[in-house]
Amino acid sequence: MLERTPKHKELQIGFKMLCEKLLTRESFLIMEAGWKQKHGRTAVSTADLTIKRPSEADLTVVEAKFYRSRKVDLALFRNALEELKKHRDAKKAKNAIMIVTCEITPAMRVETERHGGILWGLADLLLLTAKTPTLADTLADLLREADPGAAGRDLFSEELQQLEEQSPRIKTKSEGARLIADLDQVKPGREGVKKFEQLCDKAIRYLFADQFQRWNSQPHIDDRLHRPNLIARLVPKHEFWISLSEDFRCRYVLFSFGNEMEPLNQGEILSNLRHLSTGALRTVLLVVCRGGLDAGARRASQSALRENGHVVLMLTLAELRDMLTAKDNGDEFSDVLIDRAAELLTDLTP
Fold first, then answer.
1. Which of 58, 62, 56 lies closest to 97 in space, CA to CA?
2. Which end of the chain has fewer CB atoms < 10 Å from its terminal CB, N or C?
3. Taking a C-beta distance cutoff of 8 angstroms, is the pair 158, 122 a contact?
4. What average pLDDT values come out for the chain (350 residues) when binned by 10 residues?
């Protein structure tokens, strides 16, 4: 089986695992999980799943196709149906099910019926996962990761909203408080730098889980150089992030965490700025540090905005704590970032 990229493989495997759990939940017995053989070292041509009802002898073969698009070309879909038919004949199965993550058209239903199969599409998946919220979360994660569109436009926005409304993944009121307590235990300086970065990573994800996707933590390298610790793709819903996305052509935001007590200096900010790129749509850097920025670092931030249109926002550890508390209490917690951006944009200091 062709694996085009590691992300493609991850999405395909994740979706097939989800389908296996859904079918098990629907009281099917899994006779063979062929998807494991397909994604093994030596790929095998077989159905993704072979299933049956406990009280029946007839087998059903299942193919699960994860498409990164709402609509699929009919010719491509016909090829998938031919593959399903081939697996049904090989297994001598009576029934066949095709499960896809796209909208089902009348033509697709006609083709599926002509091949003697059953078709489940995106709408069916929403209904099925609604019975088990943890599976709805899994489907939502897959749809977010699959979205190839521009920032600010979720390809599956309506479906994601429906899935999120039934999600059990609502953080308890004490989530921010726990992060604050853990951060307070971290010693400043090199001794506690790795733990500080890990906790800041968790705090940022907790605060902005609905504004970003495809989080990618960068490995900690203790070489005394400052570089971003986290990068994420912006899919903004809050007006603040929407404005940054539109005004500064930002699709990816970089995050850097500094555990030093003293303010970050110019060199430390410049080291991070090297990773911003207008062409790559990485134009915003958010720095979380204990002591803030010194005068040189602030001048470097102004220069980055003036010369390259790059935005450097800063949060002290105290401000991060305040934001975590505000989210726990259901208050607006982005005010400090809004003010930071306004200060940066209205400061004409050379």
1. 62
2. C
3. no
4. 65 93 94 84 83 94 91 92 94 95 93 94 91 87 71 64 67 78 91 91 92 83 71 90 92 93 90 92 94 90 93 94 89 89 84
